[in-house]
Specification:
The structure holds two protein chains of two kinds. In chain A, 77% of the residues lie in helices and 0% in strands. By secondary structure, chain A is mainly α. Chain B is elongated. The chains are: A mainly alpha, B alpha+beta. Chains A and B meet through helix 1, helix 2, helix 4 and helix 8 of A and helix 6, helix 7 and helix 8 of B.
Chain lengths: 223, 247
């Protein structure tokens, strides 16, 4: 097991952990979005989807635990890396430092975008996820999501959700392709394919998520 | 032309430093940046002041000795050149130019603009070699090597170890340097014998020296005077993953 801890605590190992957990979370985004799209099919379809999921409760709980572990690992590793990287910079920082001329904005603010996304995650769980756990009556789920209590009918949540989706796209703009660079498979025959799939993750998926608050909050909703 | 220099002056590693401004007149645009500094140093010596210390050797862009942070850019504003290959025509009359040493915990300041880069030497000692009986010169084509592999190894070996990658990286990561030094052997048959130990030991030494981790911002590639590519870092990651997982 010694090699395992050496690997996990090395700078490259930590990056590989970030990449692996990050891509697994990307995979979860696809599953999550699939569920969200039932909202467009109307109250019956969405409620039925959530109830079907609820009937698989033991399996859902196991997935939730795994997902939590992936999140914890991703965040813990990010903190570890950020603190170590801060220590690596000299005690005195540059008076002049033209970072924007040599690197992309999204690559320099992963910590900032990640931290705001974490706040979003906590709020999102506290509002939608927690309310879902406590609303077992049939036909309630659609009303919760589109309602003006914790749902998209509430302008504060709708706007917060939109900002979060913008930051998610920004986070994945760097994160998705960076993960493949970390695995060492970006500069080969798969490079173009990875670039194309990256667009799905940083643009199409966050944008599709964002259509939900726009449609149910601003277009169809009560404000 | 006339320029104002804001230069980092520091007596030694244990004394705090500060910026000192100097006005340099009669600068020719054909002068190299170092010739301009030489001119300033001559005038400082004539006035009985301490000249500015900076590292330089070949002044031909091939030795890797020089390296200054000029207006927030490693080796100055041009792409693919070392500080010694930078000329005053890249600046304008009346410019204020901020000159700082490389800043990284693993590169402590020795004096003024000179930093201690022996951390790079220790990374090389950890695995940047092949153990072979050298003897007499071997026959050139005794070991068949494809053109593609030879070119890739040569591209990696172009790294002169100046430290610009560390200097410009927001994490002070030495990943591009280490990646180039691992790559130059990884793609050649001569490098296969110590392939696994090399990458593990060099990464371990890189971490022990206190360099940061890579965030894939690409600043190192953008600032490298020898234009060493991020392909090397991808290869280092692959080599490391392979060496860690294989028994």
């Amino acid at each position: 097991m010694n090699w395992f801890f050496q690997f996990m605590n090395s700078s490259v190992g930590k990056k590989i952990t970030m990449a692996t957990t990050g891509l697994l979370l990307c995979l979860y985004l696809v599953i999550h979005l699939f569920g969200n799209l039932f909202l467009y099919a109307g109250p019956e379809a969405f409620n039925l989807y959530v109830e079907r999921l609820s009937s698989l409760k033991p399996l859902v709980r196991v997935i939730e635990v795994i997902l939590t572990l992936i999140f914890v690992f991703h965040i813990w590793n990010a903190l570890r890396l950020t603190l170590a990287n801060r220590r690596s910079s000299g005690e005195i920082s540059y008076t002049e430092y033209q970072a924007h001329e040599v690197s992309a904005l999204s690559s320099r603010f992963m910590g900032v975008t990640g931290s705001i996304l974490f706040i979003f995650l906590v709020v999102h769980l506290q509002t939608i996820w927690y309310t879902f756990q406590t609303h077992h009556q049939e036909g309630q789920f659609y009303a919760v999501v589109t309602g003006n209590q914790v749902g998209f009918g509430n302008p504060v949540y709708a706007v917060f959700y939109l900002i979060a989706m913008f930051l998610l796209g920004f986070h994945l703009k760097h994160g998705f392709q960076s993960a493949f660079q970390t695995f060492g498979i970006r500069y080969n025959k798969y490079g173009k394919l990875i670039e194309a799939i990256a667009v799905i993750f940083w643009l199409i998926i966050p944008a599709t998520f964002a259509t939900i608050p726009i449609y149910f909050g601003f277009l169809k909703g009560g404000f | 032309m006339k320029v104002t220099l804001k230069v980092w002056r520091q007596k030694n590693g244990s004394t705090p430093g500060q910026f000192v401004s100097y006005e340099v007149d009669q600068v020719s645009e054909d002068m190299s940046f170092f010739e301009m500094l030489d001119m300033l140093n001559n005038s400082l010596v004539r006035k009985g002041e301490e000249p500015i210390s900076f590292d330089h050797d070949c002044r031909e862009g091939i030795c890797g000795t020089c390296g200054l942070m000029i207006n927030g850019r490693a080796h100055g504003p041009l792409k693919g050149v070392t500080t010694c290959q930078l000329h005053m025509r890249s600046f304008s009359d009346g410019d204020t130019i901020v000159v700082e040493p490389w800043r990284a915990r693993a590169f402590p300041v020795i004096r003024d603009l000179i930093v201690d880069r022996t951390a790079f030497d220790r990374i090389m000692e950890a695995g940047g070699y092949i153990s072979v009986r050298t003897g007499g010169a071997p026959d050139a084509n005794a070991i068949p090597i494809s053109k593609k592999a030879a070119d890739a190894a040569f591209d990696s070996a172009a790294c002169i170890g100046c430290g610009a990658c560390v200097a410009t990286c927001k994490n002070s990561s030495a990943m591009l340097f280490t990646a180039a030094k691992v790559s130059q052997f990884a793609v050649l048959p001569q490098g296969q014998v110590e392939r696994k130990e090399r990458v593990l030991n060099m990464v371990a030494q890189m971490d022990a020296e206190g360099f940061g981790a890579c965030t894939n911002t690409g600043a190192c590639e953008a600032e490298c005077p020898k234009e060493i590519s991020l392909v090397n870092i991808a290869r280092l990651n692959r080599e490391f993953l392979r060496a860690s997982l294989a028994g």
